[in-house]
Amino acid sequence: MYEIRVDEEKCCAYGNCVVAAPDVFALGETDKVIVLQPEFPSVPPHVYRAVRSCPAYALTVGRAEATEER
Ligand code: SF4
């Protein structure tokens, strides 16, 4: 299983991830990203694109037991 993690200290609510994967990311009232679907059996390509699109390097994805850097 793979999971997405957010470093909320880094998230500046640019919204790139929401544009790339609106089924997985959303912006909330606090202007920090919300992960709607944090785990995947395999990571879909558009979710990888969303992680890579974050200009603040706030997103990481990796195996649930050991998250890898982008
Ligand atoms: S692209 Fe990065 S900074 Fe922008 S909302 Fe998503 S996680 Fe936050």
TrEMBL record:
Pfam families: Fer4_13 (PF13370). InterPro entries: 3Fe4S_ferredoxin. The keyword Electron transport applies. It comes from the Bacteria. Keywords: Electron transport, Iron, Iron-sulfur, Metal-binding, Transport. Ferredoxins are iron-sulfur proteins that transfer electrons in a wide variety of metabolic reactions. This is Ferredoxin. It comes from Amycolatopsis rubida.
